[in-house]
Amino acid sequence: MTKIQMNPVIDQILTNIEKVMIGKRDVAELSLVALLAGGHVLLEDVPGVGKTMMVRALAKSVNASFRRIQFTPDLLPSDVTGVSIYNPKDMEFQFRPGPLMGNIILADEINRTSPKTQSALLEGMEEASVTIDGVTHKLQKPFFVMATQNPIEYEGTYPLPEAQLDRFLLKMRMGYPDIQEEMEVLTRAQKVPPIEDLQPVIDLDGLRTLQEKIKEVFVDDTIKRYIVDIVRRTRDHGSVYLGASPRGSIALMKAAQGFAFLYNRDYVLPDDIQYLAPFVLAHRIILKSEAKFEGISAEQIIKRVVERVPVPVQRFVR
């Protein structure tokens, strides 16, 4: 798709991340889209391709507190959210926050833990709060979860429930580096890891300001109708058992606002919707068993749907 000059601050953040990550600018861009739009990201890929390093670099670039949760089969919900412990000296319960109480959270290998523990993230991702022993604790703002998962065919993994998947604004894959990129990885590995010397580009106040500006990006009614038409087509598709919900429509609009802001626009274009639709909607639909048997992926379905929906042709500048 055609892109104009990037927002200078965003470009600085991405350049900072590229000091650590090699050849993954598109993944970094989409991660920033989710962060600015107030959403969360699910990264699905094999171990060792740099998922953890991506999140750490993003956190350092915006000077955010970083917490890592390593999901294992024996992890309990209280290990994620925190727990109230009785203090006999004060004769009262005191809350000890869990690793979820941070700005940028890496939920590493989220599909290696039980659904009960996976669900501990639900309230935090949706409401930016956690309730423990009847008391609601607000999470810090900004609050951003980047979860990683191994492909579901790997041993010892649990499929994420649909309600959990629906909380992620974007789902994407990083993929293996090409030959030159992997050689550069080896060269950098011989030296001091660049993540240690990474300096912030903006602070949390600056990040919050950017998040507020995202909401001002204009979405024309014809673009909203375009989004709704695409989402509704997923519900009627012959290969789809369950289509995307209205939450999918909202997510696509918010992601498009964030993407437009990245490229210094205060309005959303149909191109933004077309590019983002597979990342926003593919994990929100459930395919029929015959479609899975034929090897059809959810991403392919979304791309076909987008191709068949008429594109608005009027001008979208305010």
Would you write up a description of this structure?
The protein is of the alpha/beta class. It has 2 domains: 8-193, Rossmann fold, CATH 3.40.50.300; 217-308, Magnesium chelatase subunit I, C-Terminal domain (Helicase, Ruva Protein, domain 3, Orthogonal Bundle). 43% of the residues lie in helices and 15% in strands. It has 14 helices and 11 strands. The strands form 4 sheets. The chain has a 5-stranded parallel β-sheet with strand order 2-5-8-1-9. β3 (82-87) and β4 form a beta hairpin. α11 (246-262) crosses α12 (270-281). The chain is globular, with a radius of gyration of 20 Å. The two termini are 21 Å apart. The mean pLDDT is 86.
Helix content: 40-55%
Q: Kindly report the CATH topology of the largest domain.
A: Rossmann fold
Rounded to the nearest angstrom, the distance between the terminal CA atoms is: 21 Å
Order of helices and strands: HHEHEHEEEHHEEEHEHHHEHHEHH
- Strand tally is 11
Q: Radius of gyration, rounded?
A: 20 Å
CATH architecture grouping of the largest domain:
3-Layer(aba) Sandwich
Strand content: 15-25%
Q: Which CATH class of the largest domain is shown?
A: Alpha Beta
Q: What would the average pLDDT be, to the nearest integer?
A: 86
Main sheet: strands, sense, barrel: 5 strands, parallel
Backbone shape? globular
Uncertain parts: none
Structural class designation: alpha/beta
| CATH level-4 homologous superfamily of the largest domain | P-loop containing nucleotide triphosphate hydrolases
By DSSP (H or I, 4+ residues per run), the number of helices equals 14
